[in-house]
Design brief:
alpha+beta; 4-stranded mixed beta sheet; two-stranded antiparallel sheet; 22 helices
Length: 526
């Protein structure tokens, strides 16, 4: 085949670095955005927080709207043209022009000050935790104020009079616990991690013996059940601790003794989950009546002793949007606004930007101009992110107004495509905005995705939201007779009686999504 040249015209869509950054920022959660902002502040010297109070010159934002003099205009034109023979920017500013430069960033190269270079979010001062002396409380210090499970156990261990070897063994076991307070590895496995292959068997056995003694000490500490190697042992330790308490009534002691017999049986956990009193009575050698009396005792035990030491503050949800209500009923007025606590207050560093503008076209002038443009685009993209979240949130509140008046049962069916068509954006934009973004309302804090739900047909020819159907199922189960709980089929029939066509399998799916057990497990054992 003879080689040749030919021209072909085609169109294709290319995402600029600015658009890629805008899309990426939009899908970040609040914590991820904060991390991204910190990274950008470290990498880009032209970007600073608005509350850092850097020196501001007369050419800054305060005079952004003033008319530019003829002399300044001539100077700016000369600067932008990059005339030859001009001096470079002094290196005393303390940053490298090439360090951290985003490869492929396509900016306009402009270095003049514009109104957008000033602070953004200045009207929304962030609230920060403070000490008694008025200084801000560092987030790391706030996390250290919480006592973890290991710290709680180490503090108790200090009160024990132990030899250095036993104290070291106890500390090692405490550090080997998981977050729930369980010892996942066996004592032999833990001992093997501290011995070399060349050590003799006697040394390993001695270490296991010390760990066995330290384990008994660990399991005697508070909370009861810590140091267990399984759920059955955890329940047993708590029951023994309860029996050792003073002032326990005789009937309660009898129930505790029966519960101990039950937990001592092999493979009892599955029967406990099913609440099979007959099988449990056979295994424990007790009457079925005594087993039924002991089951509530076991149900009140804590399966995860370390749960109450979990750092709830670190898992707290910070809403991106806050909805406030005024009035009631038909006069209800809803106000949707961004949460000022999650809005970063950023601006372009005036001194560095003016130094670049007054520079003499040095060797690194173009690279620094690109970094300045990168800082500007970052501020604009963050502003666009919050503007999009606010638009979507307002549209959600407007469509789901009945929810804020009557609750979950009044939720309307809504899919992302409908909201995208209303706002004139792509459906993927709605998906990014509603993922890991939260709204604080008078009814509680919800993820934005919560307000979307598919439609289920009704006898009247209308549609019911799947969210409302879930709320109705939850309401029916809450009002059921504990001795005769409703099955999925009965729930389906009750929904049909209210005009909602919902199959039994759909009811089962919604019930599992609500983390509600089946009817046999909801049956009262009292």
């Amino acid at each position: 085949m003879k080689p040749g040249l030919s021209l072909r015209v085609s169109q294709h869509l290319a995402l600029t670095p600015q658009l890629q950054q805008s899309i990426r920022l939009l899908q970040l959660s609040t914590l991820e955005l904060a991390s991204e902002v910190e990274q950008m502040l470290d990498d880009n010297p032209f970007l600073e927080r608005e509350d850092e109070h850097a020196p501001r010159e007369d050419f800054g934002l305060a005079r952004a709207d003033e008319r530019v003099s003829e002399g300044d205009r001539i100077h700016e034109n000369a600067t932008e043209s990059g005339a030859d023979g001009m001096d470079s920017i002094p290196a005393s500013d303390g940053f490298d022009a090439e360090a951290g430069f985003a490869e492929g960033w396509d900016g306009d190269g402009g270095v003049e000050m514009v109104p957008d270079d000033g602070e953004w979010g200045g009207e929304a001062p962030a609230r920060t935790a403070q000490r008694d002396d008025g200084d801000e409380l560092d987030p790391g210090e706030r996390g250290r104020a919480h006592e973890s499970l290991t710290e709680h156990l180490h503090r108790q261990a200090l009160a024990l009079r132990l030899s250095p070897e036993d104290s070291a063994a106890l500390r090692f076991l405490i550090e080997s616990l998981n977050d729930d307070g369980y010892l996942e590895d066996s004592l032999a496995q833990l001992a093997a991690t501290l011995t070399d292959e060349g050590d003799d068997l006697d040394a390993l056995e001695e270490l296991v013996h010390r760990f066995s003694f330290a384990l008994k000490l660990l399991q005697s500490l508070e909370p009861a059940g810590v140091g267990a190697r399984g759920l059955a042992e955890c329940l047993t330790l708590q029951l023994k601790a309860r029996r050792a308490e003073r002032g326990v009534a005789e009937d309660e002691q009898a129930r505790l003794a029966t519960a101990l017999k039950i937990c001592a049986q092999h493979g009892v956990l599955e029967l406990l989950a099913k609440r099979d009193a007959r099988r449990l009575a056979q295994l424990a050698g007790e009457s079925e009546e005594a087993v039924r009396a002991a089951l509530p005792v076991i149900a009140r035990l804590e399966p995860k002793p370390g749960r109450r030491f979990a750092d709830v503050e670190r898992n707290a949800i910070v809403p991106d949007v806050v909805v406030t209500a005024r009035g009631a009923g038909a006069q209800l007025r809803l106000r949707v606004q961004l949460n000022p606590d999650v809005m970063p207050r950023l601006r372009v560093h005036d001194v560095y930007a003016s130094a670049l503008r007054g520079g003499r076209g040095g060797e690194h002038h173009q690279a620094l101009a690109q970094r300045l443009q990168e800082a500007r685009w970052f501020i604009r993209n963050i502003q666009q992110r919050f503007d999009t979240i606010l638009r979507v949130s307002r549209a959600i509140v407007e469509r789901q107004r009945s929810f804020f008046i009557h609750g979950e049962l009044a939720m309307r069916p809504m899919v992302q495509r409908e909201l995208a068509d209303e706002l004139g954006v792509h459906e993927s934009t709605i998906s990014r905005v509603t993922t890991a973004k939260y709204m604080a309302t008078p009814c509680g804090t919800f993820e934005l995705k919560y307000f979307f739900g598919s439609a289920l047909g009704t006898e009247a020819g209308g549609n019911a939201s799947s969210t409302a159907v879930r709320a109705l199922i939850k309401q029916l189960i809450a009002a059921e007779d504990a001795a005769k709980p409703l099955s999925d089929g009965q729930l389906s029939e009750l929904l049909k009686a209210q005009g909602i066509d919902c199959a039994r399998r759909t009811v089962a799916k919604y019930r599992e999504g609500l983390r509600i057990p089946i009817a046999s497990l909801r049956k009262s054992v009292a």
